[in-house]
């Protein structure tokens, strides 16, 4: 369990380090933020599936990681960063106000999740469904399909 808590803390610290030091390459930075988001989602899925024992502190660290990404990633879609090694759909820059609405929903959902402080697996699964829904909707509309 200590490794799991440590790993989740490393994910959160990685988000902070990425946003602090990699701002000169928006594609790299947003990839790292999405990687951290995915790692947190992996821990959440493991708890939801019973592969990892539920721990409220770990759950809160996962939610904190998502919240950090929610408030950081939107800064890394400047004009012109649709070119290069990215899975971000050009639709983001064509429909930036709609994309911003998705980010705002992600922020709202992760803010509510942080405040809820789930203390049991069922409560955490509800948080996971809400936040995961935000992620899924945005990826369906604004992420290029994987090859």
What is the fold's blueprint, element by element?
Blueprint: H1 2-21, H2 26-48, H3 56-72, H4 91-94, H5 96-116, H6 121-142
Low-confidence regions: none
What quaternary form is this? single chain
Helix content: over 70%
CATH topology assignment: Four Helix Bundle (Hemerythrin (Met), subunit A)
Determine the structural class based on helices, strands and strand pairing: mainly alpha
The string of secondary-structure elements, in order, is: HHHHHH
The CATH superfamily is known as: Cytochrome c/b562
Assess the beta-strand content as a share of residues. under 5%
Residue-averaged pLDDT: 90
Give the number of domains.
1
Q: What is the number of helical segments per DSSP (H or I, 4+ residues)? A: 6
Sheet with the most strands, sense and barrel status:
none
Silhouette: elongated
Report the count of strand segments. Answer: 0
CATH architecture identity: Up-down Bundle
CATH class: Mainly Alpha
Question: What is the gyration radius calculated from CA atoms?
Answer: 15 Å
Distance between the termini: 35 Å
Question: Could you explain the architecture of this structure?
Answer:
The chain is an all-alpha fold and 147 residues long. The protein has one domain (2-142): Four Helix Bundle (Hemerythrin (Met), subunit A), CATH 1.20.120.10. The termini are far apart. Helix 1 (2-21) runs antiparallel to helix 2 and helix 2 packs antiparallel against helix 3 (56-72). The chain is built from six helices and no strands.
């Amino acid at each position: 369990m200590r490794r799991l808590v440590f790993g989740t803390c490393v994910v959160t610290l990685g988000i902070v380090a990425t946003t602090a030091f990699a701002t000169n390459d928006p594609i790299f930075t947003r990839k790292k933020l999405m990687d951290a988001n995915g790692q947190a989602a992996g821990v959440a899925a493991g708890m939801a599936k019973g592969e990892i024992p539920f721990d409220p502190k770990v759950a809160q660290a996962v939610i904190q990681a998502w919240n950090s990404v929610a408030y950081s990633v939107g800064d890394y879609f400047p004009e012109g960063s649709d070119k290069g090694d990215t899975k971000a759909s050009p639709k983001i820059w064509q429909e930036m106000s709609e994309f911003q609405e998705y980010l705002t929903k992600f922020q709202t959902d992760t803010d509510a999740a942080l405040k809820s402080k789930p203390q049991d697996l069922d409560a955490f699964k509800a948080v996971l469904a809400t936040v995961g829904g935000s992620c899924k909707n945005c990826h369906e509309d604004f992420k290029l399909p994987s090859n």
